[in-house]
Design goal:
The complex is a heterodimer of chains A (about 325) and B (about 425). Helices cover about 70% and strands about 0% of the residues of chain A. Chain A has about 325 residues and is mainly α. In chain A, α3 (about 80-95) runs parallel beside α11, α9 (about 190-205) runs antiparallel to α13 (about 305-335) and α11 (about 230-255) crosses α12 (about 270-300). The termini of chain A are far apart. Chain B has one domain (about 110-425): Cytochrome-c3 Hydrogenase, chain B (Orthogonal Bundle), CATH 1.10.645.10. Classes of the chains: A mainly alpha (about 325), B mainly alpha (about 425).
């Protein structure tokens, strides 16, 4: 057998294993942030018993979920009910393949990485819909259908908002996009409207407050997750937080320079230390945006489902189209 | 060790219950509940009572047309304000009809009170509307004093008015938080509870308990003000407006909050009057009726305050009304503390009160509206009849009228704007 092929397979297996392993601490860190930051916003201490300053609270929660009984409702469709958490989780984990963590640290540097990313992340809606339908519960059903409506609607402005950036940079590969930003400055400066649309739409896409229609605990108990318990619920929970991490990572890769340092001396390094340097900036920026999402959750109430859809179709979509139109004209006129 | 005989089988209490229920159903001529092993009644029929409809209204609610679904909210649901159950008929996400099912918290308080002496009645009414326990005690105290023909000393009346207004402040403050919580805002409720805790600590300094105060007596109050109470009152008064404004800053001007409350659940003044809605919910619809002004009790005729009203009658007006009333209450507290006379806090009453036969009515303005007590004495040591009018129960009547046409998401938001307390509704 060809040695190169074997190496390729080995590299793929290593990368996927590492990424799957990475989802676990990512979810733990974000859950911990959520507990601690929201507690501080509400003038509480938050978790402070397990580990120094309670930093292992979310880890314990994770193990607790593992230890819980896993129930399936009598009338549920057992096969799809079991499959749904896996679908949601895999959609999140698979989209991690193209995230540019640092120079040389991309699991798969496709030339169409952006297209792949949005295609795969969109799959999670199938999992939520299946979960809502298979649970044999009316709250789940309403939540699942809401999630389908919401995520399909918001995918359109989400995708259109980055087409402007793609047109400017002339590439669909994340590493080339970051190289373009290294040369011309962050896309934030070129596409301010695109950033705003992308941020709002990405919150809706990952079901974060103020767009957490899908769970809506005061109306639908827990939406499609109502009937889930134990590790199946844990998978949904993990997938939600991993999706938040991924969305923040993609946001900074597209508009905030990805692994580039915010100053030019040097913006990036070569070799092993370059990877460390890049990863440092990537994770720092990503977690800043994760923290902003958590902050929003502690501050804002939830919008209603019709207002949510109205915003997607009446505000964000026209805005994204206008943004794309102006960008395209500017690219042609100024030959950028 | 004692040996158990394996032949003796201890009957399963659940099984006994089931057998008993089947027997009672057979006696009453009802169909038996589903037998062992049959299929679960299912998705389409959940919530439909397993008996023929008793009224036209019931038949309307539980007859489903094409595309409609019954959604059962409660009694175990994250946001039903206790144990309320709403059966919501939905078409997609739009509410077509709504049927509140009450009684999950019924404790038979009226009957308990009829078997208690006049003094101990005041301890039973506390857990009625558990967010305004002071008001719950105030109305029977007024009614029994009328029955017995005594008056509380002036200092007792001032202390009563003081604690009652303090109670109103924290109750309205909690409503702000619960309304935001039912729309998904997590933080305002915690700010509300911080504010509530200060008041509750203060009231526990004067009464000895944090929630069910048991503070009022026939002919007075239990304790005079203590140093701890007064020092806490001073600290609280210095910070209260700042704390409430901090909470308000998160809610009042919030775009999402206003979009979800303005124009939602509009209750006109005429509708409110014909449904018997009182209190802040009525005043938010523009009707300036306040028991404290209309039928002054205690010392309210000596105090100066405004009956604030709003004009629109929607959820947002009801929210603004609460904030305006908090400010009025604080204004009242300032006056009460300023004018409080010296003297005893308890009139001379015997251990067991035996009023002459007669009837008396005592009404107070509770944070949820007109809360009143009607007591009949037959000359014995306990009331012959003791009837309470709870404002949240009356407010709930308005909810099925307002919901149709709104979305499922709004049911909870509109209900929270009426601020019902299920302890009071179910008695």
């Amino acid at each position: 057998m060809d040695l190169e092929l074997l190496l390729g397979i080995g590299r793929f297996l290593l990368a996927t294993t590492l990424l799957l392993l990475l989802t676990v601490p990512t979810a733990f860190i974000i859950i911990q942030m959520e507990m601690k930051i929201i507690a501080q916003l509400a003038l509480r201490y938050g978790p402070n018993r397990i580990g120094p300053r309670g930093i292992f609270q979310s880890t314990i929660h994770g193990f607790k979920v593992l230890a819980k009984e896993d129930t399936v409702p009598d009338q549920a469709d057992r096969g799809t009910f079991t499959l749904a958490p896996w679908m949601v989780y895999m959609a999140a984990a698979m989209s991690m393949l193209v995230i540019p963590f640092a120079p040389g640290a991309i699991a798969a540097d496709f030339s169409i990485g952006i297209v792949y990313f949005f295609a795969v992340l969109g799959l999670s809606v199938v999992g939520l819909l299946v979960a809502g339908w298979a649970s044999y519960n009316k709250y789940s059903l309403l939540g699942g259908l809401r999630s389908a409506a919401q995520m399909v609607s918001y995918e359109i402005p989400l995708t259109l908002s980055i087409v402007g950036a793609v047109v400017l940079a002339g590439t669909l590969s994340f590493s080339e996009l970051i190289a373009w930003q290294h040369e011309h400055g962050w896309l934030l400066l070129w596409q301010p409207v695109g950033v705003a649309i992308f941020y709002v739409a990405s919150l809706a896409e990952v079901n974060r407050t103020p767009f957490d229609m899908v769970e809506a605990d005061s109306e639908l108990v827990a939406g499609p997750f109502t009937e889930y318990s134990g590790m199946r619920f844990g998978f949904f929970f993990f997938a939600e937080y991993v999706a938040l991490f991924i969305m923040s990572g993609i946001l900074i890769s597209l508009f905030f320079g990805g692994w580039l340092a915010p100053w030019p001396f040097p913006a990036q390094l070569d070799g092993f230390w370059g990877t460390i340097y890049g990863a440092f900036w990537f994770f720092l920026k990503t977690y800043i945006f994760v923290a902003v999402a958590v902050w929003l959750r502690g501050t804002l109430p939830r919008v209603r489902v019709d207002q949510l859809m109205g915003m997607a179709w009446k505000v964000l979509l026209p805005l994204a189209l206008v943004n794309l139109f102006i960008t395209a004209i500017a690219v042609v006129v100024f030959e950028l | 060790m004692t040996k158990t005989d394996p032949e003796i089988r201890i009957p399963d209490p659940i099984e006994l219950d089931r057998i008993e229920e089947e027997r009672l159903r057979a006696v009453a001529g009802l169909a038996p509940t589903h037998a062992e092993g049959t299929e679960y009644a299912g998705f389409d029929t959940v919530g439909i009572p397993d008996r023929p409809p008793q009224t036209d209204r019931e038949r309307d609610v539980y007859t489903l047309s094409e595309g409609e679904m019954l959604l059962n909210m409660g009694p175990q649901h994250p946001s039903t304000h206790g144990v309320m159950r709403l059966i919501v008929k939905v078409r997609g996400e739009v509410v077509v009809d709504i049927d509140p099912v009450l009684g999950y918290l019924h404790r038979g308080i009226e009957k308990l009170c009829e078997n208690a002496t006049y003094t101990t009645v005041l301890t039973y009414v506390d857990p009625m509307d558990y967010l305004s326990a002071m008001h719950n005690e105030h109305a029977p105290a007024i009614a029994f004093e009328k029955l017995y023909g005594i008056k509380a000393p002036p200092r007792a009346e001032y202390i009563r008015a003081l604690v009652v207004e303090l109670n109103r402040v924290f109750s309205h403050g909690l409503m702000m938080g619960f309304l935001a919580l039912d729309m998904g805002g997590l933080t305002p409720i915690l700010y509300s509870f911080i504010n509530r805790d200060e008041v509750v600590d203060m009231l526990s300094a004067i009464s000895g308990q944090r929630m069910l105060f048991n503070f009022f007596r026939v002919g007075g109050v239990n304790w005079d003000t203590s140093d701890e109470f007064l020092s806490r009152l001073g600290t609280w008064r210095a910070n209260v407006m700042k704390n409430i404004e901090m909470n308000e800053a998160m809610i009042t001007e919030n775009e999402i909050f206003t979009a979800r409350t303005k124009g939602m659940g509009v209750l006109t003044g005429d509708q409110a009057i014909s449904l018997g809605v009182t209190g802040p919910n009525l005043r938010a619809s523009g009707v300036p009726f306040d028991v404290r002004k209309a039928h002054p009790y205690s010392i309210y005729h000596e105090l100066e305050f405004d009956v604030v009203t709003q004009s629109r009658g929607d959820s947002y007006s009801r929210y603004l009304q609460r904030i305006a009333e908090i400010k009025q209450s604080i204004h009242l507290i300032d006056q009460i503390v300023d004018r409080m006379p010296h003297g005893p806090v308890q009139a001379q009453v015997p251990g067991i009160i035996r009023p002459r036969p007669g009837r008396a009515y005592g009404a107070v303005e509770s944070p949820r509206g007109l809360y009143s007590v009607y007591a009949i004495s037959d000359g014995g040591p306990n009331p012959y009849r003791f009837r309470m009018r709870d404002p949240s129960f009356i407010s709930l009547q308005a909810i099925p009228k307002l919901m149709p046409g709104h979305l499922v998401a709004d049911t909870m938001a509109i209900m929270a704007s009426f601020d019902p307390v299920m302890g009071g509704v179910d008695k």
